[in-house]
Structures are given as C-alpha cells and as structure tokens.
Amino acid sequence: MTTSLMVFHDRLAQSKVNRTLMERAAREADDAVIVRDMYALYPDFAIDVDEEHRVCERCDRLAFLFPFYWYSAPALMKQWEDAVFTPGWAYGGGDALAGKTMLLAVTTGGARDMYTADGKHGATMDALLLPYRITARYLGLEYEDPFIVHGSSKTIDDDALAQVADDFVAWLRA
C-alpha cells in the first residue's frame, strides 16, 4: 500500500510540529510513504494538475498534513483541491479516486479542550473537518479518523513532540 503524504504549510521552516512530523515521516515511515512538501513544489500556486493526477493514481492513500488556520487549511491546499479534483477525472463521469483512502493529519494552535461543543470554538474537530469527510465521500474515497495534534503553537514540549512523531509514523504505517 502506498501513501502520498502531502504537506501543506506555508511557513514550514518555522513550524516545530509540522516540520518534525514531515521529517520523521520522510526518515522513518518506509518506502511506501512518499513525502511531498507542497509549498516547495508549488511556491507560485501553479499546480501541475497532470502530475498531481499521476501521483494520486499511483497511490492507495492520500494523506494531507496541515495546520488548521481559521477553521480551514492553508490556501495552497484549497487551491490544490480545486485544481486536482476535476470533473471527468475525480467525479462527474470520472472515478480516479474511488476506493482510495483520505487521511488528514491536522495541527492546531489551541488546546484540545478549545475544540469541544462547549469550548472556545464551540465545535469539535469532527464538526470542523466535516467538509473533508463529505469531499471524500463525494469522490468515493474512504475517510479515516484524522490524526490531530492540539496545542502545537507553543505548548508542546520536546518529549511530547517525540511521542507525537512516533504516533504519527505508526499511524501512517497502519
């Protein structure tokens, strides 16, 4: 089983958590996980749709690692979705992604208790990530429970991050 791990972070060099997860996945996951820094590939947002279609077709699982900005993904991820999930290929007469799996690995700056119905944000991460679940369903992708790292902005210490990275690599291998 092959997994394309697409990392969407516009300031990856400054990101302690996302950078660590990406580096650990690249170093330790195995040959079946292809790690792609999407902002390095497409700094000008000019996505090579044909290449992205080939990548998606060659893998069994599409994994997206991204920070949760203002209840959404970074701009390039949305641009990628709009450009790559095309009619005639992914839906509307095409089913190139049907039977594959969508994985989300999401980091938040806020603590876990902020993402509850009664928390600061007034919603759970399941509720906030619902558009991805619906997109997966629409495209015929299986949607697995996301890998979520809360409190990543300043509160995660090195020991906790090492454990998170171990868990992340295990999650990618599962």
UniProtKB/TrEMBL annotation:
The answer to whether the entry has keyword Oxidoreductase is: yes
Q: Keywords assigned by UniProt?
A: Oxidoreductase
Q: Which residues form the Flavodoxin-like fold domain?
A: 7-170
One annotated GO molecular function:
electron transfer activity
Q: Which residues form a coiled coil?
A: none
The record, for SUPFAM superfamilies, names: Flavoproteins
This protein is called what?
NAD(P)H oxidoreductase
Record's Pfam families?
Flavodoxin_2
- Organism (species): Bifidobacterium criceti
